Write a sequence for this structure.
């Protein structure tokens, strides 16, 4: 058994696609119309082969409430790993990404939260 898909709820799939590809540098794997939404997945050129991030539309009111509650509490929806957090932080900041602080050493990791423009906080992490 292996993980092939991980999902993140987004408030707008077009906005999510622009952010995750144009800013983070992910590539589109699937973009399939499904009624008023799409089956929309992206992959990281630096990530494990076969792993896709599903940009899930929020079409269910409790899902929106859950996403909002996480965001307001400062809890990340997911984490992305990097080998060089300082250079990634600088690169993304220059592209206009909004961070909640600066990379901070937390023992086994160095991490910093950023906003994905789609209602989520993402934890950018460099393992020690």
């Amino acid at each position: 058994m292996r993980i092939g898909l991980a999902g993140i709820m987004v408030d707008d799939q077009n906005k999510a696609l622009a952010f995750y590809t144009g800013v983070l540098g992910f590539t589109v794997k699937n973009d399939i119309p499904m009624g008023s939404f799409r089956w929309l997945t992206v992959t990281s050129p630096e990530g494990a082969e076969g792993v896709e991030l599903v940009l899930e539309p929020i079409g269910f009111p409790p899902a929106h409430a859950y996403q909002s509650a996480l965001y307001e509490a400062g809890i990340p929806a997911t984490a992305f790993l990097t080998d060089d957090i300082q250079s990634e932080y600088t690169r993304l900041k220059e592209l206009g990404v909004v961070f909640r602080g600066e990379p901070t050493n937390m023992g086994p990791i160095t991490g910093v939260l950023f906003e994905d423009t789609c209602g989520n906080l993402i934890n950018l992490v460099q393992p020690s």
User: Anything to note?
Assistant: The chain has a mean pLDDT of 96. The chain has three helices and eight strands. Helices lie at 13-23, 61-73, 85-94. Residues 61-73 form the longest helix (13 residues).
